[in-house]
């Protein structure tokens, strides 16, 4: 939760983040001065939007590969193939992320 005078933030998928940033701009809300906009995905649209949108990187291709490998092993009867994949997402800071104090 932000305190008085601190920018808020939003985490959305690409299309919503871009639409939200556009709507905020039309309302006179400064991104990132008044609010940070952070996307969940990292499409070319996020990379080329102005300001470039910060993203929460979640390694989708690697996660998909790991899940596919586990599913194939489970279908083959390997009950040990099921394991928890702990991922720590990382923020990719860009122009839509407010500076922190």
Q: Keywords for this structure?
A:
single chain, 101 residues, alpha/beta, four-stranded mixed β-sheet, 3 helices, 4 strands
Could you walk me through the main structural features you see in this protein, from its secondary elements to its overall organization?
This protein is α/β, with parallel strands linked by helices and 101 residues long. Helices cover 34% and strands 17% of the residues. The chain has helices spanning 14-26, 44-48, 60-75; strands at residues 8-12, 35-39, 54-57, 90-92. It has a four-stranded mixed sheet with strand order 1-2-3-4. It is elongated. The model has no long low-confidence stretch (mean pLDDT 81).
> What is the N-to-C order of secondary-structure elements (H for helix, E for strand)?
EHEHEHE
Give a count of the beta strands, DSSP E runs of length 2 or more: 4
Broad structural category? alpha/beta
Total number of helices? 3
Q: Pick out the low-confidence regions.
A: none
Amount of beta strand: 15-25%
Quote the average pLDDT. Answer: 81
Rg (C-alpha, Å): 18 Å
What is the strand arrangement across the widest sheet?
A: 1-2-3-4
Q: How many angstroms separate the termini?
A: 15 Å
Question: What proportion of the residues is helical, as a percent range?
Answer: 25-40%
Shape: elongated
Taking the sheet with the most strands, its summary is: 4 strands, mixed
